[in-house]
Amino acid sequence: MTMRIPILKLKDYLLVSIQWELDDQTALQFQEDLLTKIHETSARGVVIDITSIDFIDSFIAKVLGDVIGMSRLMGAKVVITGIQPAVAITLIELGIQLDDVMTALDLEKGLEKLQQELGD
Amino acid sequence: MEIQSCVTILNEWDIVAARQLGRNVAKELGFGTVDQARITTAISELARNIYLYAGQGQLCIERLHEQSKTGLRIIALDKGPGIADIRKVMEDGFSTSGGLGAGLPGVRRLMDDFKIDSNPGEGTDIRAIKWLR
Amino acid sequence: MRNQIISHINERKSELINEWVNQVKMETDERIVNIISEDLFIQTSKEFVDLILLSLSDSNNSEYSTKLELFSEKVVRLGWPITFVVAGLRIFVHIVFQSLVKEEVIDKQLEGDYLEMLDQWMAPLSNEIIHTYASTWEKTVSLQKIALQELSAPLIPIVEHISVMPLVGTIDTERARQIMENLLEGVVRHRAEVVLIDITGVPVVDTMVAHHIIQAAEAVRLVGARCMLVGIRPEIAQTIVNLGINLNKFITTSTLRKGMERALEMTNRKIVELE
Description:
A: alpha/beta; 47% helix; C: 2 domains; 5-stranded mixed β-sheet; 10% strand; STAS domain-containing protein (chain C)
């Protein structure tokens, strides 16, 4: 029983809002779904909003980091939005940097950032 | 005074159950959102270690009430292969599973107190405490 | 034995007090004696002797215990150092004993018994005083801790999208956590795009402090804002480089003003003078 995270298309972008706690299978399934969707739509940018996520452990961080790297290989830039203060602090304390990940405060700012980056 | 609740870790879903248990207890004891995230994350790391390396084990949450202090203890127990070189796994960036290698040293940073006891072939016993500030 | 001592002290009250005051002055640090006014000193000493007499006549008296409490509180409030008060107690026992011996009130053979008895009277008294001191200190320490937390670090929204966090004083691990939480929650609440951390008021930036600041800046980036380190004084710049701390990932400026200009630039704005 795996829940699937909906991936929406908006012009050249894909929008993802993760609304519930990620278990390992859902996270891996999401990785696959997103890459397939990027391939199908030739999207150039992705916004993943995680406002509702209240913690990220090293596994989920790795899945997220990986999917961002994979998307980049396929020509899509990813912005993560809505990382909660508590999540940011635990990530840093865990020692996870997510160095080359683009971030923004919320969905709206995330889209703005993508537009800037892609020169739209 | 100590009250203990445990989750048996057998599959990936049990990791979610352990997190849920820890989050609820942390909330109930009055931990703030940041400490709740620290505790939940630490539990997730420890439960996943059991699942990945030992196959099965137990993750227990204990409420601690000592004199003027209140706290939460995470106990992760397994009878798996154990850890040969504890110093090595406590180094940042060391990983045998291809993960980020943040696991145990990360948990130590998230919690206030961290103890690990492990012998090859006998299993691993990890105890970590977070005190309510 | 008890009554003997009581009447002895009662009869020679002022004499004993004078002797006591003189000896305390001789034995303790001059600086302490100088800040304590003579009148207050003598008056407190008198009160103390009355208290001792009361305790001698009836040690189970509830009047005695409330008076003892009040007296201890008073001494603490006066701010006399505890070493001074304890020394005073010891000297008093000594003087009373000496005078008892001198006036031949007690038998040579019973000297030891008398000394022990005096000691036993003094014990609850000094215990209560020390206890009052200790609890006052504990209270002060915990109050100061709270005060310190309150002054920890406010995040001030200056203009839209730009906030400043001025840091003042020494930063330890506990405070660093507090600062990080305030910082991140403030960034999200004010929807800040750029945060300036002003370290003008941080006296020492060592590896640990730098580490905390770097962590805070990284966390700020994760929630989707940018962090700038401002108020870097020359000596701080020197220590940072000498310690080999790498701050290359950040934008840093020497003053808050320069930082402000940069922050406006980053958010596509500038300050113009009106004609």
